[in-house]
Specification:
The chain is mostly helical and about 130 residues long. The chain is built from four helices and no strands. The chain has helices spanning about 1-35, 40-65, 70-95, 105-125. The radius of gyration is 21 Å and the shape is flat. Pfam families: DAD.
Length: about 130
């Protein structure tokens, strides 16, 4: 029993030393993100996060309900969420990264729009 109590006290001490460092790292990260990221890229980051959260909500909904009754609709929803996440993440990389300097921003956006259209068209066909 003494070993268990000793384990919890050392874990609590470790948590007391790690948590302030994590808070400091998080605050520095948010300040740097706010200073260096263009507002239009922040909107795109929000879309990336939203599409990922949408996927998680759909999976949790399926688990809580315990049924996969409209399986085609569930598959189409998950397909769209993950596909939109991938497309937005790649657009974000193309618009902000310095490695794509020879690649036009307009071309990236047009490709994103066409790929999104094809993604939703294929999901619509999946629903039947």
């Amino acid at each position: 029993m003494k070993a268990v109590n000793n384990y919890f006290t050392t874990a609590a001490k470790d948590a007391q030393t790690v948590l302030p460092a994590l808070k400091d790292a998080y605050s520095r990260l948010t300040v740097q993100y706010d200073e260096t990221t263009h507002p239009k890229l922040r909107i795109l980051d929000g879309l990336v996060i939203f599409s990922l959260l949408s996927f998680v909500v759909q999976i949790v909904y399926m688990i809580v309900l315990g049924t996969k009754e409209p399986l085609n609709a569930l598959m189409a929803g998950c397909f769209c969420s993950l596909g939109q996440f991938a497309l937005c993440a790649s657009l974000r990389i193309q618009l902000s990264d310095t490695t794509f300097t020879s690649y036009s921003n307009k071309k990236s956006i047009i490709e994103f729009i066409v790929a999104s259209f094809l993604l939703y068209l294929s999901a619509f066909c999946l629903i039947n």
